[in-house]
Amino acid sequence: MCFLRYFWFWIRANNRHGVHSPFVYALMENAVFDKKSVHSAKEILLANNKFREFSYFDRKRIRLFLKLINFFMPKQLVWIGERHQNLFNLLNEINEDCQFIQLKIDEQSSFINSLKTIDWLIVDAKSIHLELFNQIKNKLSNDSKIFVLESDNEFFRLRNEWGSKVELDFFIMKILLFRIEMKPQNFRLRS
Q: For the segment 98-110, what is each residue's pLDDT rounded down to a tens digit?
């Protein structure tokens, strides 16, 4: 069933030439479809034996994360949720330049209050509590990026609550951007 949904998504999605936003085109050209980042991501993942344990969609998600991390070079990555623990551990092992912070469900509220801003936030949408929405919204800056790993219903709830400007849907994950200079736009993209 999931592959049927993926096939239907793939038919309706665009590649880099189907987008009309210069920012999204540059992101697709320099991160997602860049030959150098593709080869470096493959080399890193093939050298790591744990990569073979993941499902097809988790492997695609890891490759996309590595490409985006190499492109944006975030200093801090905050992961909210306890699901996808093996994905978090692998990304933490591979990338040493970025500070990875994982928040368990019981410690989310106190830690988010201690942060000044959030650079990258990866949300397991089923693990986030409603009272955290406003706390997180106050920490988001123009360059903040939110990655949502779960279902469409949870994603739409987060998108509507936080009022993002740009939505990038890669099927395997969705990205919310809060760039003030951009008009609200939604993109379905192939990775």
A: 777 777 666 656 6
